[in-house]
Design brief:
- This protein has 609 residues and is α/β, with parallel strands linked by helices.
- Helices cover 38% and strands 10% of the residues.
- The chain is built from 21 helices and 12 strands.
- It has an 8-stranded parallel sheet. A 4-stranded antiparallel sheet has the order 5-4-7-8, with no helix packed on it.
- Helix 5 packs across helix 10, helix 7 packs across helix 10 and helix 13 crosses helix 14.
- The longest helix has 27 residues.
- The two termini are 42 Å apart.
Length: 609
């Protein structure tokens, strides 16, 4: 497959909205048949025996691991050889899902100016890609770098040192971007770049992001939020923006080229994963960062003060049993009536972008579409605020008109009221259940497997949880006895694989396990600890070549997938069906019969001209 085909607009993907509508239509058809049905004691209508219940959805399993956690030669997981090896390993394991965290540029500290901790959930742009994932080796293959320019392999094992990776790898990525821009117009790579950046759905966010980045790197503005920029820039005076575009044209084109290199490598990896029967599930936080091109370029769509452009209200969640102060996230809230006025165009573009990079998307904090917490922007806690009505089903109908539907997973964890459940069911989106949450409360706990429902994704744990083994080690004897009685989980099997077995057996149509659980790792491999600022997001699975040593785990996953009907029936991962003796004999007999071919009669003689 050519690269041009990789960066072209993606093909439409089946949408749960459409599937839900189809199921609703089927139910209505059943109701109509019931109304027109013969009376008691009369003959049934024709075709009665063909009116069978709809088949359940196909069952799948998968693994969640962020690309930064992959092995890599240069300090971080990247989109090079080990990413493709991981896809091969997933296919061998009969895993049909690879779930990742947000691919956006992570929150980045500026020494002496701004603290930040490389979280993919505090990214500075909702549409751009994390260019630290760009593979240097792949740039050599594209002849944008020389192999002699590459650093010696470093930090092959252990956690990612993001600052070192940025200092070492980014200058080389910048060099590759400039060499791309220096290519002749006839070069296939340059031609692909020009086509890509001119696509309307790409230009809509790329140009604003490039300008935002250029202004933010201007001397005197580094580290400042956009609402603290000079008034003409923060209020987007056309003359001021035009002047900035002229003075920063080179930097902006470098930015575009770097984003192109990210997209080129990621879409090539995605195409490979799809060819192996693996679907990429992305992760999209519902809110965007305040200091972002998204808010700066679309100020009317957010709740901002007119006087200084700062957020007038911010997102979060109220106090609960786990937090006396609640959580004040600080993201600006959406002006939902304005979004409705514009037909949810911005949201359709955001989801459309996510579906260019993934096959399916999990939306974090889905409950905010039903109702969201509006916190005071000037407060230091989330105590002061109130619940506000969200856009509800109007939103999903709006984006379906613009986008044709979107395959989403609803992150519906936490305090979930009945309106959230009703909304999720109305749009047909799968929700989430988490096995680590199953062991408190009574038998009605929704995370206990006997309470699972088919249209859901079952997880052993999430990126915010302890590893399953680490969590199990900290439980008291009563909880462990409960787990053994209920699911046979014991020290002998290990909690991680006990949860994997339990998730595979769940009625949930998909189950997904952190890679740390597949490897039976403890809390030394934890990805994130909420409420702790530093030391997160850095876990890595191992040295280059790791997946060639994980064949035992692949076989165990494949065996469980087969036992619990989670192996694909069609496509690249489908098992090869054994050929029956009768079929072989019939094929052999057919092969012995004369066959008419071009230029010959059926009896094998040549036709007369």
């Amino acid at each position: 497959m050519s690269f041009a085909s990789c960066v072209a607009a993606p093909a439409a993907t089946a949408a749960p909205f459409r599937a839900a509508a189809q199921r609703s239509t089927a139910r209505r058809a059943c109701a109509v048949r019931a109304m027109a049905a013969p009376k008691i004691g009369e003959a049934v209508e024709k075709g009665y025996v063909d009116q069978m219940p709809a088949k359940r959805d196909a069952r799948r399993a998968g693994v969640i691991m962020h690309p930064t956690s992959l092995p890599g030669q240069y300090g971080i997981g990247d989109m090079g050889a080990d990413a493709y090896a991981f896809v091969d390993w997933l296919a061998d394991s009969k895993m049909q899902i690879w779930q990742v965290l947000p691919l956006v540029p992570p929150g980045r500290p500026i020494p002496g100016i701004r603290e930040d901790y490389w979280s993919p959930y505090s990214g500075r742009d909702a549409h751009c890609g994390n260019t630290l994932l760009i593979s240097l080796d792949e740039l050599v293959k594209d002849k944008l770098l020389e192999s002699s320019e590459l650093p010696a392999p470093y930090n092959l094992t252990g956690d990612v040192d993001f600052s070192k990776v940025a200092a070492t790898n980014e200058p080389l990525i910048a060099t590759a971007a400039r060499r791309l821009l220096a290519l002749d117009d006839a070069s296939p790579l340059m031609a692909a770049f020009k086509v890509w950046k001119a696509r309307p759905e790409i230009a809509a966010w790329l140009d604003e992001a490039a300008l935002f980045d250029a202004i933010g790197n201007t001397e005197g503005l580094v580290g400042k939020d956009w609402w603290d920029w000079p008034d003409a820039l923060r209020r987007r005076d056309p003359l001021a923006l035009a002047a900035k575009c002229d003075s920063c044209a080179v930097a902006m084109e470098d930015f575009r080229a770097t984003q192109f290199l990210f997209e080129k490598q990621w879409l090539s990896l995605k195409t490979y994963a799809n060819s192996k029967g693996v679907s990429l599930v992305g992760d999209m936080p519902i809110y965007v960062g305040g200091h972002s091109a998204d808010v700066w370029a679309h100020q009317a769509l957010f709740l901002l003060n007119k006087a200084d452009c700062k957020p007038s209200a911010v997102a979060g969640v109220p106090p609960d049993a786990f937090s006396d102060d609640g959580q004040l996230w600080g993201n600006p809230l959406y002006d939902w009536p304005k979004h409705e006025e514009e037909g949810y165009t911005w949201w359709a573009g955001r989801l459309g972008r996510a579906l260019q990079l993934h096959d399916e998307v999990r939306i974090d904090h889905f409950r905010a579409f039903a109702a969201y917490w509006q916190g005071e922007a000037t407060s230091s806690t989330a105590k002061n605020g109130e619940w506000m009505v969200g856009p509800r089903e109007k939103f999903f109908k709006g984006i379906e008109k613009a986008l044709g539907g979107a395959p989403i997973v609803a992150e519906d964890l936490g305090v979930i009221t009945e309106d959230v459940v009703a909304l999720r069911e109305a749009i047909g989106a799968p929700g989430m259940v988490v096995l680590q949450f199953a062991w408190g409360g009574d038998g009605r706990n929704p995370h206990l497997p006997h309470n699972h429902y088919e249209n859901s994704f079952c997880y052993s744990g999430t990126h915010d949880n302890e590893t399953s083994q680490g969590w199990y080690d900290a439980q008291d004897d009563a909880t462990k006895l409960h787990m053994q009685a209920y699911a046979g989980i014991s020290d002998t099997e290990g909690a991680a694989w006990g949860f994997i077995r339990l998730g595979m057996s769940s009625v949930s149509k998909a189950c997904v396990f952190p890679m740390q659980d597949v490897l039976s790792m403890g809390n030394e491999a934890r990805m994130n600890t909420p409420g702790v600022a530093s030391g997160n997001w850095a876990w890595r699975v191992g040295a280059p070549g790791t997946f060639s040593t994980a064949t035992a785990e692949a076989k165990k996953l494949a065996r469980l997938a087969a036992v619990f009907d989670r192996v694909a029936e069609t496509g690249p991962q489908a098992p090869v069906k054994p050929v029956k003796v009768k079929e072989v004999a019939a094929a052999a007999a057919a092969a012995e019969e004369p066959t008419a071919t071009v230029g010959k009669k059926a009896d094998g003689k040549k036709k007369k001209k």
